[in-house]
Amino acid sequence: MGEGLTINAKKILVAVCGGIAAYKVAELVRLLRKQTMQVRVVMTQSACEFITPLTFQALSGHPVQTRLLDEQQENSMGHINLARWADVIIVAPATANMMAKLSYGLADDLISTLCLAANCPIYVAPAMNQSMWQKAVTQENLARLEQHGMVIIPPEAGEQACGEIGIGRMAEPVVILQQIQQGFLKSPERVIENVPLDEKHLTTGLLKGVKVLISAGPTREPLDPVRFLTNRSSGKMGYALAEAALQAGAIVTLVSGPVQLKAPAAVLLIEVETAEQMYQAVLSAAPQQAIYIGAAAVADYTPVQVEGQKIKTEGGENTLFLQKTKDILASVAALKQRPFVVGFAAETDQLEVYAKGKLLRKGIDLIAANWVGQKQGGFDKDENALHVFWHEGEKKLAMTDKKTLAHQLIELIMERMNEKNTAKNSG
Predict the structure, then answer these.
(1) From-to residues of CATH 3.40.50.1950 in the chain
(2) What region does 378 belong to: left with phi over 0, alpha with psi -120 to 50, or beta?
C-alpha cells in the first residue's frame, strides 16, 4: 500500500469504555496499526466485560492497562506516563457516564484521569441508547466537552443492540480513523512535501486550494478468514488522478482499496478494504469536498454471511448467497451538500448505452467510461482510453498512458465544473 500522509511517528492512545460498541474498537486498532501508527490501549473495568484486554494486546502489540494505579510502573504513575506518551487520545466508545465525567473534570478511574492529565488532542466517539443520547443533560455534557476543546465524532443513526432505532451507534472505525488523519493534516507541525512537477503534465494552479476526494482500487469482500471476493482493478488510474490533482494545486484525500502502489506523499490517504468501509470513508468526507472522483472498482455484491472458520472443500458443491452493497456514487450525488461528482464505468459491451444510463440513474455530473477485457487498456494496464459523457455533451480521450490521461481528465472535470457553476450563478 502507499505511504500517503506521513504519520508513522504518531502515538495513539485508545481508551475503551464499557459498551457493546467496544467490539468495533478492535477494528479501529487494526486500522490504526495498518497506518503504521503506534497504538496503546487502556480500558475501564466495565469494558473488560464486553471484550478482553488480551484481544487488544494482540492487536496493538502492547500490554493493556485497566487500573488507575499500576504497581508495575516504576513510579506507580502509569496514567501520567501514558498521558505524556500520547500524541492523540481516542475515547471509544464514549459512554454517557464517561462523557459526564470528562465534561466536569472528574478523575475517578483510569480513562477520566488520563484525559484530565493529557495535553494532547482528545477525540470522543459517543455510543449509547438513542434516548440517552437525546437527553438534555447528555447534550449539555456534549457542548461542554466541545468547549473544553475535545473533538466529537458524532454517533450514527440505525438499529441498536437493544432493538431500538435512532441516533446513538458509534461511528464506524474507518470514519474515526479519517477524523484522526484529518486532524494530523491540519496540524501546524505537519509540513506537506513539495509535489514533484512533471513538465510534460504541468497544470499547476488549475485546482489551487480546491478540495478533491478520490476513491481508487478494488474492494475485498471476505468469505472466510482466508478467502475474499475482489476484481482486477489495480488502482493505477485513481492514483494517477490523485497525482494529477496534486500537481494542479488541489488538496487531495485518497480513499484506497488494497493495491500495490505508493501514494503521493502529500495526499491524505485513507486505506480501506471492504465496500462498506469505502462507503463510510467517502460519505464522511464528501460534504467537505468540491470534487469527488469515484475511480474505485467497488464490489456490487458482498457475502450475506462471513464464515468464522475456513470453508472446507470436502462437502463438494457450496452455495454462496450475496447481497447488494451500498451505492457510493448515488449516495454522494444525493447529499444536500454535495461535490461535483465524477463516476467511472468499465464495460465489456454497449459502453455508451450503459455509461449514459449510469450518468442519469445515479444523478452524477460526469462519467468516464472505458472498455475492459480487451488487449489494450482497462484494468491492471498502464494505458487506457476514456469516453467521457456529461448531460450536455461528450468527449473522447484517446489511448495513452494513465498519467497523461489523468491530467486530461482533471482538466476536463475543471472545465465542466466551472461551466456548471457559471450556469448556476447566472440562473
Answers:
(1) 11-184
(2) left
Going along 95-218, which residue ranges are E strands?
122-126, 151-152, 156-159, 165-169, 211-216
Q: How far is it, in rounded angstroms, from Cα 343 to Cα 388? A: 10
Cα separation, 359 vs 388, whole angstroms? 10
Cell reading at 123:
477525540
User: Per this entry, what is the length of the chain?
Assistant: 427
Q: What is the pLDDT of residue 76?
A: 46
Q: Which of 228, 213, 150 shows the shortest CA–CA distance to 178?
A: 213
Q: How far apart are CA 225 and CA 308, in angstroms?
A: 7
- In the chain, list all ranges with CATH 3.40.50.10300: 196-310+318-426
Task: Kindly report the CATH number that applies to the domain delimited by 11-184.
Answer: 3.40.50.1950
pTM (global) more than 0.90: no
Residue 13's SS3 state is strand
Nine cell digits for residue 243: 497525482
Lowest average pLDDT, out of 4-13, 145-154, 385-394, goes to: 4-13
Give 166's strand partners: 158
Q: Which of 48, 115, 120, 162 is catalytic?
A: 162
Is 115 among the catalytic positions? no
196-310+318-426: in CATH 3.40.50.300: no
Q: Tell me the C-alpha distance between 280 and 324, whole Å.
A: 16
Nearest CA to 152 out of 167, 163, 164, 162 is that of: 167
Q: What are the pLDDT digits (tens) for 232-257?
A: 889 999 999 999 998 888 888 899 99
